[in-house]
User: What shape does this take?
Amino acid sequence: MARFVARRLAGMVAVLFAVSVIVFVVFMVLPKQNPAQTLAGKNATPVLVKNIEEEWGFDESLPQQYLSMMEKIFTGELIQYSPRLPVLDLIVEKVPATFSLTIGAALIWLFFGLLLGYLSAIRAGGWLDRILTGVSIAGISIPVFLLAPVLIFVFANKLEILPNGQYVPFEEDPVEWLKHLILPWITLAVLSIGFYSRVLRSNMLDVMNEDYVRTARAKGLSERQVMTRHVLRNSLIPVITLFGLDFGATIAGTAIITEAIFDIDGVGNYAADAVQKFELPPIMGVALYGAFFVVLLNTIVDVVYAYLDPRVRLGESASA
Amino acid sequence: MSAPLLSVKDLRVGFATEAGVIQAVDGVSFDLRPGEVVAIVGESGSGKSVTAQTIIGLTRANNARIEGSVKLGGEELTSAGDAAMRRLRGERIAMVFQDPMTSFNPVYRLGDQIVEAIRAHRPDTSKKQGRERVVGLFEAVGIPNAEQRIDDYPHEFSGGMRQRAMIAMALSLEPEVLIADEPTTALDVTIQAQILDLLARLNRERNLATILITHDLGVVAEVADRVLVMYAGKVVEEGTLDEIFYDPQHPYTWGLLGSLTRIDRPRPHRLPQIAGSPPSLLDLPKGCPFRPRCPHEFSKCPQYPPLEARLPDSPGHRDRCWLTPEEKREKRQVEGQIGLEAPREVGQA
Assistant: This one.
């Protein structure tokens, strides 16, 4: 276990380093434009450009610029261009909104995905299975940018029972927090509910044919015990893996569209803004934040996997 | 003779498929008495496993048609409710499966899986009582260090040890009937002998009535009292162990006996086999189903032969072959021992 953790930490550092280099190269080296020129504006004097270059360090060598940027990231001193605010503080400020959105949506999609998948599998071939299959396929097929406006139109504009967007911090007003998040949660969860129910259903149908399920019946367990303790339990292993990876990816960026449509001031929206304005410091900050969660969730998945399936041993099999 | 514990009468099991009804078991009857071992022998697809699983109610499905009667101590099982069948599984009839590698759930400890079986029938058993019981069972089936090994996962056991654990689980509720479905097929030969010894010993010590399903007559010779030979869903011959081994009446049985490799005989030029393969259950030949593979086919074979005693001295020895006992005695001799000669057309293949 200790070896596994050590190896994973080393792997995490390697991934974050690679991500930071790629982001730096893509946004700093490849564009031919001088960032100081952009910052100074269209009618800037050469003196002003020169001043900006010196102030932000654009006149230094690229490796030097990279190193000082990394140093500032870890000391929390990295400043975005305009307004001049520390990137770290901004991300920390926006994390509650993003986490409220993604964790809530993840719980919803996991619960309903598994529920629908389970019901579908134990009634495979019956009318309930057919209805749920239709619902799942519909959920998978509807794009977020279509689903969200429809939800807003129906629940916010026509029925006027839910707000059409924005984020209210939980500490400020828990009820409003909930009301503001319901539509974004549904928007973000629908695709995964459909997808997870299909995955669980097909896993369960596979496991039902396993010899040990026949053994479970032969020893006199009730159908419900056979389904929950043996079929569902074993079918969940791959689903949990999938969930860890998807949840990491959602925190890291999949939520961007939903945040943009519902005008939620989260990390995803911040990243989208930064890319539009071509601001390297926030892009770098958000990229590392996303990569960190992807790698972290990957590691958690491996630990949970070894717990769920005793045949897996962390020491030998795992690699970063 | 004591009254039969388990009595199967004219059992028929068919499965509706898109291609038609597959009659997997077609009129099987036999009695099983306490302490007796009945072996059901046949190739893959002969219906032996379906027979066993139907007895315990595991073949019930929407597309299954089950007819005939299975009585356990006078109680009819084919019409018993699902809940009644569930209570009886493991408690009165237990089953040991072929592949011990895949027959335990890989994610639970072996001891827990056996305790689960005990608690399914005796819910007031405490976890501790259950564990103690499993330790005793492990010792009874010859698993060393039982105390520690009950906390192992299935993948930490060897194949032979896993089959012992499977037998321990089957015995956990002291059933009256044990169904062993190819219990040694997936094991090494040396381990096979150990498992068969174990089954024979349990059968003796606990007066356990056993149905042994196998395709291996060598296994049958070790433990069985009576033998049913099945082919294409039907019993083609039945009798005591000695009757089947020393005076077999059906050419299919000759073929099975002839394809046994024996250490006390000269090594054959090539391994004997029964030419051809079993017929499709969707397209059975008219009359005797073994006819296309039988070198002794003659004019009566297109008529379906009844299962009846054809030898005046042994009323319990019944078969489905039209040949007279004298013809059989002569035709089953191949190179000085019992066997089935290769039929002319397919023999060269």
